[in-house]
Amino acid sequence: MSKLYIVPTPIGNLEDMTFRAIKVLKEVDLILAEDTRTSGKLLKHFEIATHMHSHHMHNEHKTVENLVKRLQAGETIALISDAGTPAISDPGFLLTRACVENGIDVECLPGATAFVPALVNSGLPNDKFVFEGFLPDKKGRQTRFLALQDEYRTMIFYVSPHKLNKTLAEFAQYFGADRPVSVSRELSKLHEETVRGTAEEVLKHFEAKPAKGEIVVCVGGLIKTKG
What we know:
Layout: E1 3-6, H1 19-27, E2 30-33, H2 36-45, E3 52-54, H3 60-72, E4 76-80, H4 93-101, E5 106-108, H5 115-120, E6 129-133, H6 141-148, E7 154-159, H7 164-175, E8 180-185, E9 193-198, H8 199-208, E10 215-219
Parallel strand pairs: 1-4, 1-5, 2-3, 2-4, 6-7
Antiparallel strand pairs: 7-10, 8-9, 8-10
Helix pairs in contact: 3-4, 7-8
């Protein structure tokens, strides 16, 4: 029976791959991978021989229609990204939406997602939070910061290493130098690190010790005042 499986893959530590994810990837007719070279190493490690096709942000608009037809014809397909859960700041939304619109069954397996451990170990309130993903590079960046100035929930951002110091400086500028910040990098990997403090303190840390690897930043929300 046709079905699209959304399958999370480890964000670093291969031991975070679930038994169920391995089983699904072995049984489906096709695996859609963000980068077949990266995913090829993962599949080889777990002895998964299923055929792969490339499915990434540059071709997903063109491939969705054909993939829907294959699913309607009875195939089962699994979608994976380079790391973590597909469609979370990665390709996947367009295909998922198309399947839902066409009555094709979609099942997302639980698994690794970088922002969850970063939020939990940040020490910041996590009863309510907002996931912002990657900020705009230029157009709309200032507008986004201004819109978030009154956000009371903890905010979560994905930030590339070479933009971390600039972003931390912007947090201090728009949210205040004393706003609590937690930077987690290389989660689940050998050199995993979380640095906590005010925006100003964390910026000084990474100015002295430039960051490397995958980074998730959590920023405390605006504290409500009584009155």
